[in-house]
Design brief:
This protein is 45% helix and 13% strand. The chain contains eight helices and five strands, in the order βαβαβααβαβααα. The chain has a five-stranded parallel sheet with strand order 3-2-1-4-5, sandwiched between helices. The structure holds zinc ion.
């Protein structure tokens, strides 16, 4: 436990919710910051608010429609059909919102500075959806250095999920005692269905695959004992 405050960039999805409870275990005080950036499913923000309440942490919602409206992507533009996986040419899938993590973390740092917070937490992971360039560790380290230079601060960006795949993220939630909460209360589905979701969008498939993998591993361990 670090006797310090932390700010979690929080969407109410599986990853950032797991990070929120990870943060609660590691920091004396945890706050959350959620962005409304024009995502198709506005209930994402009410889901985030409810989870923050359940976790007993403060919740701040920032209205930032600009970030979703700058480029064309299938998370904010209803006329675009979502890529189910990364295109074969190696470009990011159209669910990629360019600049999103750069923007989120930069604004989070400004707010953290205002509140005397040094620790920033984000649920990015490079293992699963590596089509997103702003989920890579090099980007996070580079941005951390830039933010420190930009504001003459000593921010530390924590990425507890960076090396974890989805099955390991479920395992982490379980070890933090919030497996059921993450499974039933979070919103990962691109079609806006809380919990196990629609089952067929790319986010649901990734989440389900990880969940099944984790549950199978858990069963195996139980059988071996
Ligand atoms: Zn879905």
């Amino acid at each position: 436990m670090i006797a310090d405050k932390a700010l979690v960039v929080f969407s109410g999805g599986q990853d950032s919710t797991t990070c929120l409870f990870w943060a609660k275990q590691h920091f004396a005080e945890v706050q959350t910051l959620t962005f409304a950036y024009g995502q198709k499913h506005q209930q994402e923000t009410s889901v985030a608010r409810r989870i923050a309440e359940l976790a007993g942490v403060s919740f701040t919602l920032l209205d930032a429609p600009l970030i979703g409206g700058l480029g064309r992507n299938s998370l904010t533009d209803t006329s675009i059909t979502m890529d189910a996986e990364q295109p074969a040419d190696g470009t990011p899938p159209n669910t990629f919102v360019p600049g999103r993590n750069l923007f989120f973390l930069s604004i989070a740092a400004v707010i953290a500075r205002e509140r005397g917070i040094r620790h920033l937490i984000t649920g990015v992971s490079h293992t699963d959806y590596s089509g997103y360039p702003d989920c890579r560790d090099t980007f996070i380290r580079s941005l951390n250095a830039t933010l420190n230079l930009a504001m003459d601060e000593q921010f530390v960006i924590h990425t507890p999920l960076m090396e974890l795949d989805k099955a390991q993220t479920w395992a982490l939630a379980d070890s933090l005692g919030v497996f059921d909460l993450v499974r039933t209360q979070t919103l990962t589905c691109y079609n806006g269905i809380v919990g196990d979701g629609c089952g067929h969008c790319p986010a649901c498939k990734l989440r389900q695959h990880g969940l099944q993998q984790y549950l199978a591993q858990k069963q195996q361990t139980a059988n071996a004992q």
